[in-house]
Amino acid sequence: MVKLCEGFLGDEQELAKVVYFTASPLNPEKSSRQSAFLNANKLINGDRFEIIRGKYLDKQIQCPNCHYTISRPEEKKTDVNISVRMIADCVLNATDSIVLVSADSDLVPPLEFIQQQYPEKRIKVYFPPSNFSCDLKDNLTHHNSKPVLMYKNERRFRDAIMPDVVTDGSKRYEVPEKWKPNNIVSV
């Protein structure tokens, strides 16, 4: 993740840290794959890669017509954690630029707060592939900026691919089979 983010830096910019906000999936297989990914990033990048966790809760949804109930996982705390961290970094003067990689329109209010209270802080928003937010785009446009569409930067993704095995001698993380290129199905 650090190498990917560094690929978007300008000549005079320095990346201090990538703060990765996530929640562990409820599915044990998915959780295990995510842990391997995060641990490998931590092993490669040390203190330059920080993980802040939210959580998933099962949410019961009932069909209003047939009253059939299903359980659907819902991520909790992640957007609040992102908001608090962005504002805290501004209040503590821990950054001169914020780069948000998200298309979650719930993050417009903290961005507006930062834009009003800390106008000297640069804000960039990168939309992950297959994600877009008109609300975030409109906020940026209002502040003479525009989002970066990450899907248009395939070379940067390719340049940031980790090796299949990451190790430091005592710890070893391997790319899960499901994530290897020959197992990825295009949609």
Specify Rg, calculated over alpha carbons: 18 Å
Beta content? 15-25%
What's the N-to-C terminus distance? 24 Å
Largest sheet: 3 strands, parallel
Structural class: alpha/beta
Tally the helices. 6
| Shape designation | globular
Provide structural commentary.
The chain is of the alpha/beta class. 33% of the residues lie in helices and 24% in strands. The chain has helices at residues 2-6, 28-45, 78-91, 108-117, 134-142, 154-159, and strands spanning 18-22, 49-53, 55-62, 69-76, 97-101, 122-127, 148-149, 165-167, 172-174. Helix 2 links the parallel strand 1 (18-22) and strand 2 (49-53). The radius of gyration is 18 Å and the shape is globular. The model has no long low-confidence stretch (mean pLDDT 92).
From the structure above, extract its key features.
33% helix, 187 residues, 24% strand, 6 helices
Compact description:
With 187 residues, the protein is an alpha/beta fold.
Q: What is this structure's SSE topology?
A:
Blueprint: H1 2-6, E1 18-22, H2 28-45, E2 49-53, E3 55-62, E4 69-76, H3 78-91, E5 97-101, H4 108-117, E6 122-127, H5 134-142, E7 148-149, H6 154-159, E8 165-167, E9 172-174
Parallel strand pairs: 1-2, 5-6, 6-7
Antiparallel strand pairs: 3-4, 8-9
